[in-house]
Amino acid sequence: MVGSASRAGGGYATVVIQRPDGRTRTLYFRMGRAIGADTSEADPGDFRATREADLHFIRVGSERYEIPDAVILGG
Question: Beta strands 24-30 and 12-18: pairing type?
Answer without folding.
Answer: antiparallel
